[in-house]
Amino acid sequence: MTETEMDTTTRNTNAEEILRVSGLSTRFFTQEGQVNAVSDLDLRIERGEVFGIVGESGSGKSVTARSLMDLIEPPGEITEGKIEYNDPDLADAVRDDYPQAVDGEYVDLLEVPADVRESLRGTSFSMIFQDPESSFNPTLTVGEQLAEAVEVQRRASARPRSTRAKTQDYTLASFALSTVLPSREYVSEESRERAIELLEMVGIPDPVERADEYPHEYSGGMLQRAMIAQALAGEPDVLVADEPTTALDVTIQAQILDLLAEIQEETGMTIVLITHNLGVIARMCDRVGVMYAGEIVERGTLEDVFDDHVHPYTEGLLGSIPDLEGARGRLQPIPGNVPSLLDSEMEDRCYFADRCPNAMEDCLDHPPEYDADGSADHEVRCVLAERDYEESRALPEGYFGETERPAADKHADPDRTEEDVQPERAEQPVDDSGGDRL
Amino acid sequence: MSLGKFLVRRILQGIFVIWGAITIMFGLRAVSPGDPANLMLAEGATQELVEQVRREEGLDQPIYVQYFDYLQGIVTGDFGYSWQSNREVEAMVIERIPATIELAVAATIVAIVIAIPLGVISATRRNQPSDYGATLFSLLGISTPNFWLGLMLILVLGVWTGVFPTGRRPVGLGEAAMTFAQTGSPGDLFTWLRYITLPALTLGTYFTALITRLTRSGMIDELGKPYVTASRAKGLPNVLVRYKHVLRNTMIPIITVLGLQMGTLMGGAVITETVFNWPGLGLRLIDALDARDWPLMQGIILFIAVAFVVINIVVDGLYSYLNPQVRE
Q1: CA angle A166-A168-A169, nearest 5°?
Q2: A234 interaction partners in chain B (CB closer than 8 Å)
């Protein structure tokens, strides 16, 4: 572990890392027990890059995204780790009060109070969600909701150094007053006008009329554009996009990705793109992390992961993409189920071993991250990076017993309810690379 | 659907409901035992007198003739005369409406003022002592019978401590307001307020408990929706997420419930009005029932049906105003 850390710090001296996540663990304390949704996760995200996180449902992608945004809610909790954000202004502002949180220009967001983290939302970090239809309030106009996001930014830039959460400035009394006096409303006219500009910017026709419409009057693709506009309202440094195209039609998916790419090019914003769709990754990302069972099992540049991958899970994900050009024959699903993330059921081994075609005795120890061939960023959590597969050391078939285990990891995905889990389980074996729908 | 179409449809439906209520009441009267003429006359009246009354009231006609006569009367605004007091039913109903509305509105205000903050606290501090307290309160409120609660309030706050008066109120809101407007003395208004407090608390307790539960569960439901996370993600202050977004959406179904409760209360809270001797429709209904004063009973039930239908239409209109998804 320490070896890897040293590695990364010495390697990336030229490119500035905007976000350094180390040893992040997010757990859910449910009645069934402790669920390790994210365990000991390291991420280095460079300013201006598009970093992709790919994995099956329940691999901890969404929880990772929400951990970055500090949107984990009980019974979930970030139990360990650091999320260091490079922002010299913020570092100066909190240095006196929380010296332990500051390391040069970096601030460990988990060491500062929640209201400081909250003050970064919208203006430093912003997020796009999977399902645009449910991510807008159905009873307020789209324009009003966008204007709220603009107002957050306006108020924040009115006092740039303040790390006080907006919550403290905006109390219940202010809200009560605003219901009586229209002039005391949170959202100003200027913000409403800016919201219309934003709608226009993301390609919504007739933005003036559209701003006064409600979410249900928009199509899914339009609404996702509006959500992107909303996320851009605060001119954030980092945009976390959690499955931004999953709920959309295939043709619309491409448009949304183009829009994101365009905006990224214009603003130089850093994007953390979370998806189960390797096609999206290939199209958008500079670097990729493959997640499995709450950890990153393989990471590197696009070439590392697509062409020089080492981990059999990455291989499996790529094998389940339909190849329209080559005659590769039938899709190769990964056998078995997403593993249980219940702490009591997680053994200290490679979590993929029970589904792995190349499982060996070595896999009974939890592997560290090894350097792998390819770019300097290429790392993999698999013994195959160090030694070749040997038939003689292979684990006997059925070593882990019945591989069909109950998917007790439903808590790993905060949006997933019990009902969602059932059909998904029935649908196994895995097709959840999502196919290459692009 | 346009507002006009909506109104026309709902009003036609409403007329049908009211007609149904009239017909059922008439049917009940027809099958109930006892000769109305005997009820109207003193004991020992001569047979001729009874026959005369029967003719005058049209009771010697076949039942369908009586039914259409009654319907015709209602359409032309003639609701008949009370058998007991021989006064016009219309006047007897109208004079009791203000007291009933005052009590219904007061009870609803009690419910809103207490229940919504309590529900919000409960939902936002889930599984903490304040939540348990609110839950206990609402369980008690829902399961306490009104007559008992009313009697206890009279006993403790009225008789023992004398904080609030007991007995029939001396002045209604209308008169009190008139006095205030004319003389500038708010004395009558205070008297009115002191008299209405205990009945309003009694009647309001059940609704308070109910609305607390609804607010709590509705708000917990709303808080779990993705748009709440999305609002937090865009940096919106918590107060706005909680009240401008979540509470507002929670209130939409609750307003429907409140409206329907108001409809129920329009019929007069029979038990509460009886316990407090409150001069509303409920008390008059009980009196009419005791005396088997059918025309008065029918008149009161007709008013209840009309009030219920009107309030329902208003609530539906309000609901579609508040919820843009059903607006067009």
Answers
A1: 65
A2: 234-235
Tracing tokens 């996320």 back to the chain, one arrives at A231
Tell me the shortest Cα–Cα distance from B243 to chain A, in angstroms: 8
| Total number of domains in chain A | 1
- How many beta-carbon pairs below 8 A join chains A and B? 103
User: What is the C-alpha separation between B250 and B256, in angstroms, rounded?
Assistant: 11
Instruction: Compute the distance between CA of residue A132 and CA of residue B247 in angstroms, rounded to an integer.
Output: 21
Please answer whether residues A66 and A27 qualify as being in contact, where contact means their C-beta atoms are separated by less than 8 angstroms: no
> How many folded domains does chain B comprise?
1
Instruction: Please tell me which of the candidates A66, A152, A174 has its beta carbon nearest to residue B234.
Output: A152
Q: What is the largest CA-CA distance in chain A?
A: 79
Residue of A nearest to B238 (CA): A167
Residue B117 maps to a domain: yes
Q: Which residues form the domain of B271?
A: 95-280
Mean pLDDT of B182-193: 85
Contacts of B226 in chain A (CB under 8 A): 129, 131, 134-135, 415
Residue A96 forms part of a structural domain: no
Query: Which ipTM did the prediction report?
Result: 0.79
pLDDT > 50? residue A408: no
Contact B239 A175 (CB under 8 A): yes
In order, the DSSP letters of B234-288 are TT--HHIIIIIIIIHHHHHHHHHHHHHHHHHHHT--HHHHHHTT--SHHHHHHHH
Q: Work out whether strand A238-242 and strand A125-128 pair parallel, antiparallel, or are unpaired.
A: parallel
- The chain B residue lying nearest A214, using CA atoms, is B324
In a domain, B203, yes or no: yes
Looking at the whole model, is its pTM more than 0.90?
A: no
β-strands A370-371, A379-380 pairing: antiparallel
